[in-house]
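Hi C.,

You asked whether I'd gotten around to modeling the 195-residue construct. I have! Everything is below, sequence then structure, no commentary in between.
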Amino acid sequence: MTLDNTFLIVGLGNPGREYKDNRHNVGFMLIDRIAVRLNAKGMKLQSKAIVMTAQHNDRKLILAKPQTYMNLSGQSVQGLVHFYKIPLNRVMILSDDLDLPFGTIRIRASGGPGGQRGLNDILEKLGTKDVPRLRIGIGRPPGRMDPAAYVLQDFSRDEMNELSLILDRGADAVLAFVTHGLNKAMNDFNGGVKE
């Protein structure tokens, strides 16, 4: 298998059971959803990340969940990119986004981190803003609640009921990126679940 059909998909989150259902961990949740759908194999620890591999059509996917805590995700991503020698146009970072309404998917080819510290660390370590990313909206905190506290809360029961559909749509979007490229994924999936 040549490396030109290998993709690195990195979900951001915090390691540890206490963070499992946090809003900040929607990147991990999306990796898990893709892993189950594609029957991913060979879980191991590599470059400070839990890594699995999967096949989709004739593409190889390396699915990664950095275990460094969110703000240091760049160490892990940098290590994986260098180890697998994957060009950045075949890398996708999956993360939460406070500035998007809950459930909205936004795929971009490049840009700033938008306040997402894990993404910020990745862009700094890789030395470029040209890294494809898929962000899932978690909405703004209510009232005057501190955003840092809000992202570390679990999704509400109502949100959890909707989350499965959102993760399915996110998985579809990632696989569209892998199969058909970034532009098609952006055209087909940017927006809310109900659109």
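If it helps when you're writing up: The mean pLDDT is 94.

Thanks,
B.
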